[in-house]
Amino acid sequence: MGDCLQTSALGNRLYEERNRLTLTQEELAQIGGVNRNTQRNYEKGERNPDAVYLMAIAAIGVDIMYVLTGNRNISTVGELTPAESKVLANYRSLPDEDKASVRRLTDALAQSLDSSTKERAG
Q: Could you tell me the pTM of the whole model?
């Protein structure tokens, strides 16, 4: 059961990355060296991508660390916007207890987004 949830989450994150890069399933499938049906199965959590596919899509900017773990690799996202820099600066100025509260809040928001993405993909 845990594997199913992990595969589903991986598929949702792959879907998010494809949309972030404004690619169609067909386009990302071609880049990854698979057909569109395989791409769809990856995004629906019905199959797991292999290393060759992941390396190919990483080359065009897919954040593979995020797809696999749910943790963004900031260096692949690009430079921070002014608003993001302000949020980060504010966060860094907080006491540790308040930083923990902010992390709990952002974790809850991300889980909510993950749930709504899962509903759209299903």
A: 0.58
